[in-house]
Amino acid sequence: MESPNALNHLAIIMDGNGRWAKERNFNRTEGHKEGANVVRDITKWCAKNHISYLSLYAFSTENWSRPKIEVDFLMKLLENYLIKEAKTYKEHNIRFKVIGDISDFSNKLKDLICNLEDSTSKNSSLTQILALNYGSRDEIARVFLKLKIPKNSTKQEVSKLIESNLDTFDIPDVDLLIRTGGEMRLSNFLLYQSAYAELYFSDTLFPDFTSDELENIIDIYKQRNRRFGAI
Ligand code: IPE
Ligand code: IPE
Ligand code: MG
User: Fold this and answer.
1) What residue ranges do the domains of the chain occupy?
2) Which CATH class is domain 9-135+172-222?
3) Which residues line ligand 2 (CB under 6 A)?
4) What's the pTM?
5) Catalytic-residue membership of 15
6) Quick one: three-class SS letters along the chain?
7) Each residue's pLDDT tens digit, 64-73
8) What is the pLDDT of residues 46-60, one digit of tens each?
């Protein structure tokens, strides 16, 4: 039997918080709070199960178009999460990294992010990557702003230059991309990095997502036939 696929980089589009809350006649913010608890559980599970990289889509470049009250709540929730969970990263030897453009975030949030990135930079179990004000098109535009392409470069050289200037410059390509919440779209998440990712769409709303379901999805992934254009 062929050996099962390795899983180095898992990415999750955490969708369905609002609908989870609506089903219970709660405010949408309750769904986000519950989602944050799931983030903690899933992250710990990934660290324990030797997954090297876990990318989580937490706030997209398009999410600013939500009502201000929801955006403000999400920023506050993030602040509280980073303060409260600092100990989880330490205890479980998890490295924290943010992708996306956080330049317009509050100074308090930026400091919290930078401090946690610094204090966990040597941690060596899981790298948890939080996508904040992230969108692939924005990321690629930011690459172009940084890039200086030497004349007569080959396509391969330009590809290398692009990859080394993406937010994910030190992270391998996505192996498995899961979206919860039943929608079948990528919503501008890791488009370049997921060129050959295996996709899995779950109807489970993110606050109901469990490590048991994740384990089942990973088992399915391991049996997929990844061909990368070959036969
Ligand atoms: C995902 O859940 C979380 C964020 C985008 C911040 P949603 O808030 O999109 O939940 P639904 O899709 O409205 O149910
Ligand atoms: C994608 O969910 C963004 C995050 C999970 C952070 P959305 O709820 O924003 O996506 P659309 O609008 O349904 O495509
Ligand atoms: Mg949604």
Assistant:
1) 9-135+172-222
2) alpha beta
3) 13-15, 57-60, 63, 183, 185, 187
4) 0.98
5) yes
6) CCCCCCCCEEEEECCCHHHHHHHCCCCHHHHHHHHHHHHHHHHHHHHHCCCCEEEEEEEECCHHHCCHHHHHHHHHHHHHHHHHHHHHHHHCCCEEEEECCCCCCCHHHHHHHHHHHHHCCCCCCCEEEEEEEECHHHHHHHHHHHCCCCCCCCHHHHHHHHHHHCCCCCCCCCCEEEECCCCCCCCCCCCCCCCCCEEEECCCCHHHCCHHHHHHHHHHHHHCCCCCCCC
7) 999 999 999 9
8) 999 999 999 999 999
